[in-house]
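@channel sequence for tomorrow's demo:
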Amino acid sequence: MKRFSIIGAGNLGTYLINSLVKKGYILKYIYKKAKYPSHQFEAAIEGDIGLIVKQSDFIIISTQESKIREAAELAAVSSDPNGKIFFHTSNSLTSDELISLKEKGGSVASFSPLQTFAETEPSSKENLFKGIFFLAEGDQEAVKLAEKIAGDLEAHVLVVDKEDKPYIHIAAVSASNFLVAILKLAEGQLKKAGARCRVPIDIKVLLPLIKQTLKNVESRGVKASLTGPVKRKEMGIIKKHLELLEGDEKELYKALSKFLKK
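structure tokens (generated this afternoon):
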């Protein structure tokens, strides 16, 4: 089960291609186009989805979430999915998105990495899959292959129930996207300080603090890692901060402080 194809070669898809090929998997086709054109894989671009399914052991659908079901239905009507394995890589959606393939004999599963893939060169030597967790749920045969693939990528698999995926996705969005939102708030205050003292200050001055906070969470857990004015109940400092903030920044600071008090 080494031959694979990708439908939807965006950030995640192109990272998967490079990582799987490095681990000895055989890329057969990239459906239509890749976001990051690579001369290395240019010959793999193919528009015949029937041929793609026929010559692949497993197919990874890594399109935008809103297009996963559409891609699965296209593959179902344009090929013979019987005996093939299909994955999609959405953390928020279940294997039900691939029902059209399952109904025609395909084995299906959601197989999604709890990782962020920013726009960068996918040929980077950094292994963004090493040590991470993939969520997997679906047919037994597909989940078994997912575990094998994750192991080859030096990652782990968390087999979950369908109803648990939305909660895990909320957790992932909170840990990644909302972290960026908080750092955006922090960056804004650094810019204000830099403008007043005429010394450029950027987010790099906070990186040691951020990294130590994450180390504390890893070793002590979330609750025990809280420090600062909320932890010490220094409401005067919080009030002063709120007086300096306006609009969305003020509301975000207020909401987060209130949430941390609970």
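heads up for whoever presents: DSSP finds ten helices and eight strands in the chain.
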